[in-house]
Amino acid sequence: MDPVFGQLLAEYPRFLTALEPAEHSRTVTVDELAEPAVIERAVVAAREIFGVTDARHAGQLWWFSAVNSLVAPAVTMMVEYDRVPDLDVTTGRLFLRDPADRCDDPGAGYWVGFTPGEFAGGSGAAHHAAGEGFARSVRPVVAELSRVAGIRPAPLWAVAADGLAQAAVEAGNGAFDPYLGVRVALRLVSGLAVAVPEGAAVPAPRFLDIAGGAVTPTDMDAVAAEEEPDEVHTVVKRASCCMIYRSPTSGKCLSCPRQDPADRERKLIAALDS
């Protein structure tokens, strides 16, 4: 593993299980991850973990988790350290943290991870290429999940776009440079958009700023001018839903697009003030 991961994990230990296989993890190829039995097991695992009954909701919930595990560590590195891991998951180590062949364990087959194997220097072109590489490499997984769970491809690609954008913006907030996170997010999603299958348009990412107890649209002119705003916390105005609210043990998440906008803004302000 590249030494930069040690630095990343020292600051963000939560990424450990997404980056480093455990003793029982199993390395897989993208084609193996996209096998019907593996996808079917992932959907079953979502039902076991979260009590979600509809295959469509369970499948989308698994994909939301998978995208976060696959991209969040690498995207954080792009923002924090100006190094760009290749998000083409065929170029690194892709693994099932609790493999499908351990299916006697509740939830086995749900968690995935990815250790990038190739890097580029930070640049707008490199960010765009990373988003494009991610889309191209996971197309077989999205196609099979769509078939197995009965989900249209468009919502799954929207989950991928939001996952990239959210990881970048969260890293920007952590680095006290939220608009850097926005710029990286825009480049990643623009790359993703050019590589999705025909007919699966990716929604353009939208952002909100929280400052002084108010929520306003992000100043995109200031983003383009590479300004560094003071005391601003930026969030993604998500177009996709993770479906966790379909679980009997969970409510709607903080940034859920299915909330009343006023309620969502009030919760975002309260969470930042807490």
UniProtKB/TrEMBL annotation:
Pfam families xref list: FhuF_C (PF11575)
InterPro entries the UniProt entry points to: FhuF_C
Domain Ferric siderophore reductase C-terminal, first and last residues per copy: 238-258
Protein known as: (2Fe-2S)-binding protein
